[in-house]
Fold this sequence. Notes:
The structure is a single chain. By secondary structure, this protein is α/β, with parallel strands linked by helices. The strands form 3 sheets. It has an 8-stranded parallel barrel, surrounded by 5 helices. Helix 12 (296-312) links the parallel strand 9 (281-285) and strand 10 (317-323). It starts with 5 loop residues before the first strand and ends with a helix. The protein has helices spanning 13-16, 24-29, 44-57, 69-72, 81-96, 112-116, 125-140, 153-161, 173-197, 217-229, 265-274, 296-312, 355-369, and strands at 6-10, 62-66, 100-104, 146-151, 202-208, 211-212, 238-241, 245-246, 281-285, 317-323, 342-344, 351-353. Beta-D-glucopyranose is lined by residues 12, 15, 151-152, 155, 208, 241, 243, 285, 323, 330.
Amino acid sequence: MAAPFLWGAATSAHQVEGNNVHSDWWAWEQRRPLRLRSGRAAEHYQRYVEDFALARRLGHNAHRLSLEWSRIQPARGVWNVAALAHYRAVLQELRKRGLTSFVTLHHFTNPLWLTQRGGWRSARTPVWYERYVARVVSHLGDLVDFWVTINEPMVYALESFWHKRWPPQRRSAREVWQVVYHLAQAHRRAYRVIHRAHPHASVGVAKHVIAYLTPRPVHNWWFNHAFFALTRGRHDFIGVNYYQAADRSDRRGPVSDIGWHIRPEGLTWALLEMRRYNVPLYVTENGLADAADAQRADFIRGHLRALEAAQAAGADVRGYFHWSLLDNFEWAKGFAPRFGLVAVDFRTMQRRVRPSALVYKAIIEQSQAV
Length: 370
Ligand code: BGC
């Protein structure tokens, strides 16, 4: 029997866990205004049982989260057994609830000690990353269903080493290229280490794909394909994170709370663009900032229709993860953008299901009934 289509939502450690004190982001945030610091985030580190119960109640059969390298290895050569035990409990909880796990190993944040040694500009970092992955594989490997080695390598490289919006706020084309190259090496090393221990493992990346609805071949190659050119043959699946289309009509139509244009047809383009790699595709992120929940239900419907259109045109799409399960720390923008299917009151940490989450639930149930 074919595996069921995976339906879920995604989060990342730094954005929801709270008190991620050994990471480079945490150190950087301390110089920023209080409202732009991650602090307790959504306290997911303490509340994961409640949060997974919610996901299950909302009809999800899968969940994507990330492990925080800086918790697992807070200092060079120091492995935090308690953090590994925590993540074991987290993954066991997913399993117990029948949620298929997508586990990201690197989602933008780094251990501070690593950044102080050059971070991803350094040729030693892929080696350190491999040791971290090996540790994770030996402690948690039996509980992981799908491995996402790196989240959005191009976004990370450009935000941190070109646009100066994220730490370490540098601007150097040479460094961007170094970082992308080292991330690709890291991916290849992780791919090997995971497969050595688990020959049938599914290992991939979550790739931010920009839909160039007006063709821009050079941009398309560089942003969407360069990372795959460096990691050819090392992908059991591709995770597609889709948020933006680029075309001439960009300035019209609906936008989210943070001004991003809503272009569902770009998801069809993105999935068909990734079809050339001949591996299964999963939408590992797709969502919008919408505090009033005025647009989310239509957004979901529209993007799922676009996903179906890609399938009809031959793309092998096997899952969809909405970004995000919970309102969370939206990086340099702080807590104002609300991406959650579930709203979080950051004072009381109370969770409240948004109406669109129930629309998503109904769509999931309908698809499972046929
Ligand atoms: C990232 C998430 C982020 C989301 C919305 C993606 O690029 O992977 O961490 O919260 O976009 O900006």
